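The following block was generated as part of the benchmark described in Methods. Ligand: zinc ion.
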Amino acid sequence: MHEYSLATNLIEILREEKKKRNIKKILKVELEFGKLASAEPLIFKEIFDIIKKDTEFEETELIIDLIEPEVKCLNCEKDFKADTFPFLCPYCENMGGELLRGDKITMKSLEIIKD
Ligand SMILES: [Zn+2]
């Protein structure tokens, strides 16, 4: 399952951050989760909350901010929001466009206790 490997991945990233920055405890991790990312945010959170129990991040709270995808029309060059394929420009009705944001999962912030 894709969400499972992403959640395992997040644990690894937290572990590296912890080591690198001398963090005693990570209280909260906030992710920006694009609506077009190839994973289901609720399932991802569920899995993270299960697998964290076997790690030092048992008490780490996961916050997910859903990001509305933004597309740039290649015809009229206006930006618009779209969360389904194919993208249809509301201004000139051109089909397609360049995705500017909303297909990635990125770490936004960490709330920590320093060592
Ligand atoms: Zn357009």
